[in-house]
């Protein structure tokens, strides 16, 4: 046996042992589960955390951490390991907002999955069959009185001098994909004194402001899966021009974490497969309308899933 072969024989087992030790050490670390600050973020974050715990994976919760930019930066920096994100946000993460592919659910998912994998070593897992797109909603009484069903109707109402006060987060007001996009497409402009800017991104607060007419508010930033829309008599204005991308919620996890805990994908797949628009609206309503604890809402949902 040559000297080189002898070195290989001695070193390879040592290197393999070292790699196994590193993997074991990594696997001993809890998976840091996070989410955005809104109601759905709390629900989806709890579903992820509890599903992993039930599968024997150690978890540390950092739920409702902040808005989109805060949570995504934390994931890329390795400060958190997994959180629920929305496919349509890939349009803005990668400065491709003008590409029509984001309005096609399958293409949007495939594109953001590949871009995040190659650019940031982030892995998109199975998405839910629901579109939590940003929307503008108005009070039911206003909608019925002035026949407001779409954003085109709202533009008509505003041009005629209709009174309008709109509650939203700073992200909705400033994000190119939200209010600015709606205004440009439908030809209306909300003045600063028509906007009630609420801290954070929780639509529960904007829904409540419209329902209670806080500071004269009669319109609110909402999401397609908001649970309080029907209960609070709010009308979602349709988007006939298709301004918004498709926003399917899906777990987004760091590749290194998935390598250490490959069971994550299989544990979360049946959970997100069971989440459609109606289910998410119901779960969100339990928290936003009925005041239930997101932890208990998630636990009850997981208990009801077929094994």
Question: What's a concise summary of this model?
Answer:
This protein is α/β, with parallel strands linked by helices. Helices cover 50% and strands 16% of the residues.
List the helices and strands and how they pair.
Blueprint: H1 3-27, E1 31-36, H2 39-54, E2 59-66, H3 68-76, E3 82-86, H4 90-93, H5 105-120, E4 122-124, E5 134-139, H6 140-146, H7 151-159, E6 166-169, H8 170-174, H9 179-186, E7 195-198, H10 203-212, E8 219-223, H11 228-231, E9 234-236, E10 249-254, H12 255-260, H13 263-273, H14 277-288, H15 294-304
Parallel strand pairs: 1-2, 6-7, 6-8
Antiparallel strand pairs: 3-10, 4-10, 5-8, 5-9
Helix pairs in contact: 2-13, 2-15
What class would the helix/strand composition place it in?
alpha/beta
Q: Count the strands?
A: 10
Query: In percent, how helical is the residue content?
Result: 40-55%
User: Count the helices. How many?
Assistant: 15
Mean pLDDT, to the nearest integer, reads 90
Low-confidence runs? 18-26
Looking across the biggest beta sheet, what order are the strands in? Answer: 7-6-8-5-9
């Amino acid at each position: 046996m040559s000297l080189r072969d002898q070195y290989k024989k001695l070193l390879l087992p040592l290197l393999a042992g070292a790699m196994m030790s590193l993997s074991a050490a990594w696997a001993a670390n809890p998976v840091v589960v996070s989410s955005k600050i809104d109601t759905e973020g709390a629900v989806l974050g709890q579903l992820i955390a509890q599903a992993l715990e039930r599968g024997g994976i150690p978890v540390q919760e950092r739920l409702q951490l902040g808005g989109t930019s805060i949570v995504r930066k934390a994931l890329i920096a390795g400060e958190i390991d997994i959180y629920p994100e929305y496919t349509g946000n890939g349009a803005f993460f990668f400065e491709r907002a003008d590409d029509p592919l984001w309005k096609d659910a399958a293409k949007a998912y495939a594109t953001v999955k590949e871009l995040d994998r190659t650019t940031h070593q982030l892995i998109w897992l199975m998405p839910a069959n629901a579109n939590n797109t940003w929307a503008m909603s108005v009070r039911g009484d206003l909608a019925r009185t002035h026949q407001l069903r779409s954003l085109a109707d709202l533009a008509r109402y505003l041009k005629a001098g209709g009174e309008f006060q709109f509650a939203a987060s700073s992200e909705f007001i400033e994000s190119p994909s939200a209010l600015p996009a709606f205004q440009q497409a439908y030809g209306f402009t909300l003045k600063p004194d028509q906007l009630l800017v609420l801290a954070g991104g929780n639509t529960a607060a904007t829904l409540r402001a419209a329902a209670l007419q806080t500071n004269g508010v009669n319109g609110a930033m909402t999401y397609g899966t908001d649970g309080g829309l029907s209960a609070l008599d709010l009308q979602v204005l349709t988007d006939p021009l298709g301004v918004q991308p498709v926003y399917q919620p899906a777990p987004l996890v760091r590749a290194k974490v998935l390598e250490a805990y490959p069971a994550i994908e299989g544990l979360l797949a049946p959970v997100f497969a069971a989440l459609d628009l109606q289910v998410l609206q119901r779960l969100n309503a339990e928290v936003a309308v009925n005041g239930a604890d997101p932890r208990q809402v998630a636990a009850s949902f997981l208990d009801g899933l077929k094994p």
